[in-house]
Amino acid sequence: MALFDLPLDQLRNYRSASVEPEDFDAFWAKTLQEAREYDLDASFEPVETHLKTVKVYDVTFAGFGGHPVKGWLTLPAWADTPRPAVVQFVGYGGGRGLPHTHLLWASAGFAHFVMDTRGQGSGWGGGDTPDPVGSGPAYPGFMTRGVEDPESYYYRRVFTDGVRAVEAARSHPLIDASRTAAVGGSQGGGITIAVAGLVPDLAAVAPDVPFLCDFPRATTLTDRDPYREIGNYLKTHRGRTEQVRRTLSYFDGVHFAARGRAPALFSAALEDQTCPPSTVFAAFNAWAHEDKTIEVYDFNDHEGGGAYQEAAKLAWLPQRL
C-alpha cells in the first residue's frame, strides 16, 4: 500500500479533534483509587528455563478489581543490585508468551517485566490471564467490550492493569524504581502512552506505532481491524455513535499524551493502515514533555521499524535510565 494519509510535513503539525471529557482526571483518579484498595500482592516465582544468561520469574499481581494478572520478570543472571527496568506491554491479541522470547532487554543489562494482557493471548504469544468481567453485546474482538459506558469499557481494566504492572515491577528488590521505563508496540504502545499519562514519575517511554490514539480519525480513516471493530459494532447498533465516541474519549491516547511527563521515543510508519500515521502523530504532537523524538519509516506498514527501531531504543534508553 502506498502512502494514504497526510504528507509528512502536515503530519508534523497535525492535531486531533478528539474532545477530552471534563472529568477525565477524576475518572482515572477514581479508577486507580479503587484498584489500589486491593493489596498488590505481587509474587515472583523462579522458573527453570535452561537459559544461562538470565533469571526468569513467573509473576502474578492484582490488577483491576483485584483480578490476578500474569507477567514475566527477566533479569541478567549476574544481577545482584537494583537494575533499571523496562516494563513492556504487548500487541493486540497476544499474551506474554514464553520466557525465552523476551531476551532483548535483559541482554542489555536491564530488568525486563512483560505484562500479560487480560483476556488476550490466543491470536499469538499465548496468554495466561483471563478477564472475569463480562459485557453487553460486542463485536468479535476486544474493542467494543463494554463500550456502552466508560465504567464498563474493556480498556479501563487493561490500562489499570498496566499501572499496577509498573507498581509490581517496582516492588521487586532488584529493580530500581526511580529508573523505570515503559515500552510497547501497537496495542502495547497505546497501553504505554496511557500508563505514562497515569504514572507521573516514569523515567522514559517508547511507544512504537501505537494503537488506541485519535479515535475520531482512526475509526473513520482505516477499514482495518482492530479499529474497524468499532465501525462494525455501530453498523449494527445504529444510533449509538455519540455514546460510543464519549466512551472512547476517556481512553484516547491523545489525552494521556497531554499528561506525559517523561522523555519519549515514538515511531510511525507512513504506509501503516492499522495505526495510521496521523493518529500516531496526534499523540506525539500532544506529548507534554519537551524531550520527545519520533522515528519515521517511510515505506513500512504496521511492522514499523522492527529490528531497526529496537536498535534505536537500545541506543536511546540508556541515556534516560
From TrEMBL:
The UniProt entry, under InterPro entries, shows: AB_hydrolase_fold (IPR029058), AXE1_dom (IPR008391), CE7 (IPR039069)
**Residue limits of the Acetyl xylan esterase domain?**
1-318
What Pfam family is a match for this entry? AXE1
What's the domain of life for this entry?
Answer: Bacteria
Extract the coiled-coil ranges from the record: none
Protein name, please? Acetylxylan esterase
Q: Which organism is it from?
A: Streptomyces xiangluensis
